[in-house]
Amino acid sequence: MTARSIADFNTLPAAEFAAVLAPVWENADWVAEKVSEGRPFASASALHDAMLALVRAQPEQDLLAFLNRHPDLGGADVRAGRVTAESDAEQSAIRLNALTPEQIAEWDGLNAAYKGRFGFPFILCVRRHDQASALAAIRDRLNGTRDGELEAALLEIAWITRYRLADRVSDNGITGL
């Protein structure tokens, strides 16, 4: 993928803008489609903020549907290659696609417990973790509250999308990565 300037994004036809930015969001093309209506954006950070605000403004039922389109970390879809190219690259970087049978059982059990408790999958920006710290994070977050975990999921999505957007915008100016 070739990174483009924010000025280029501001002048793209709406359909192309949405197509290029859709992979920033996990199985949620509507985010890029809808946010294109708010152009021009002064910076990649302003674009990212608009996207996050759009997601956060969704009614809870829609927000839960959005969260439930995210794959389980180290889950069957990852192991079978049935995830987006972005998720595959991110999870593969910490070898969640190459778990031992014992690790598979552990991740599958933790993912099921998390989803059973909170009603949506455990979401983590794995670019900020290695496999051991990701495992520690899911264990720790299983002790959270539903409201706390909903907020944690949105914060992790903010990190995931910040990285993915920075990959696509050449003059991204996104700090803290």
Describe this structure in words.
The chain is an all-alpha fold. The chain has a domain at 70-153: Oxo-4-hydroxy-4-carboxy-5-ureidoimidazoline decarboxylase (UraD-like, Orthogonal Bundle), CATH 1.10.3330. Helices cover 60% and strands 0% of the residues. It has 10 helices and no strands. Helix 2 runs antiparallel to helix 3. The protein is globular. 29% of the residues are buried. The mean pLDDT is 94.
Structure at a glance:
The protein is mainly alpha-helical. The chain is 60% helix and 0% strand. It is built from ten helices and no strands.
Can you write the helix and strand succession as a string?
Answer: HHHHHHHHHH
| Cα-based radius of gyration, to the nearest Å | 16 Å
Indicate the structural class.
Answer: mainly alpha
CATH top level assignment of the domain at 70-153: Mainly Alpha
Instruction: Quote the beta fraction.
Output: under 5%
Overall shape: globular
CATH H-level superfamily of the domain at 70-153: Oxo-4-hydroxy-4-carboxy-5-ureidoimidazoline decarboxylase
Cα distance spanning the termini: 19 Å
Number of strands: 0
CATH architecture assignment name of the domain at 70-153: Orthogonal Bundle
Low-confidence segments, given as residue ranges, are none
